[in-house]
Amino acid sequence: MRAKHTRRWLFIVCAFFLMQSLPCWAQDAGHEQIGNYGYIDWINQKVVAKGTGAPPAKYYGKPQARPMAMRAATSDARRNLLEVIKGVHIDSTTTVVKKLTEDDSIITRVKGELRSSTVDDIQYMSDGTVEAMVSMPLTGRLSDILLKAPTRPTSPRSKAMAAGSMENRVRQLENRVKALEAKLAGLNKVSFEQKEMLMLLGQFVATWAVYDATRPRLIAAAQGDDSQAVLMDRLVRQEKRLRDMSSRLTEVAGRVAVLEGTGKAGKAAAPQVKTPYTGLVIDARGLGFRPCLKPEIFGPSDLLYPGAYVDAARAVRGGFVRYYRKIGRAQQSSRAGKLPYTIKATGVYQGQRSLQLGEAEFKTLKSISAIKNSFLQSCNVVIVF
């Protein structure tokens, strides 16, 4: 009996020390392990990898042995770091390794950046080998390379959209353009702001004309030569263009409404609505959400963030979002600011790397996204997972 009790305690002690010896990324929920190469540290926005090196046998015991082993370990770590980067999700459906099949120049540019990765730690082993830990920020130059790789946005609408509904949306947008033109034509006098509005609308109409002349005529897969996959790809690309133009048209309509509400032409436009909030904190805990470089945030039927309004330079420099594990730390972060708008996500969508919001929160944030220099435009968005 005593021997059985002793073996049990021995097993517990061994298990404890085994867990302590595991890599830290295997124990941290904020780290996403990529094979045996390393991990993505989403909280600190960086990729990390470890490498091992040994000197050539003829140099063992000689002064050159340790520096040569260190260089070998660093080179091995940077090769592993490349594999970690390949495993990074750009958005809910696209990984870096998938983009490499479409644009092999990405890998060349990433390899060029690996030379500037930081050597965080060097461990000299008793057998003469060396272990090196290297890391590289996901923001900045690496982010610029990865985010400029074209991706295909998704939305709940485009997943199951038919040709008929697409044509219906086209007609609706055409009617909206005509209605806006009629409103502007009915103004007695045109102020400077209204002239600017007319120019903006003219640019939109020109863009729409090009789209209308070149948009593909979608037909049922059974009636044509194209495969269903090709048709769906066309549909998704067409939906993206529609969504971008719809967003621009909404902005046009909002600016017209402000101008028309000023009373007499020539008066200064009504002051733009402002929000007291300094950032957005989205609570995604318990939903199975997993981070990515460019998480998409949807309302019940449309994409909210990121949109065309986002400051692209800020997104590259600091990321589209910051991730935290604790709600308190997220609300006190510099990214969220002094008065963050905190909401709870209703669920995840497609691959668990994008989020959906409720109708009320979506409407509030949609109006904020149109405000100049709003926290959404400045990428002051934090997700707690």
How would you describe what is shown here?
- By secondary structure, this protein is α/β, with parallel strands linked by helices.
- The protein has three domains: 25-147, no CATH class; 158-260, no CATH class; 279-384, no CATH class.
- It is built from eleven helices and 13 strands.
- The strands form three sheets. A five-stranded antiparallel beta sheet has the order 1-2-3-5-4. The protein has a four-stranded parallel beta sheet with strand order 9-13-6-10. Strands 8-7-12-11 form a four-stranded mixed beta sheet, with helices on one face.
- A hairpin with a 4-residue loop joins strand 2 and strand 3 (46-53).
- Helix 4 packs antiparallel against helix 5 (141-147), helix 6 (163-185) runs parallel beside helix 8 (228-260) and helix 7 packs antiparallel against helix 8 (228-260).
- The longest helix has 33 residues, at 228-260.
- It is elongated, with a radius of gyration of 27 Å.
- The two termini are 46 Å apart.
- Residues 18-26, 150-164, 218-225 and 262-272 have low confidence and may be disordered.
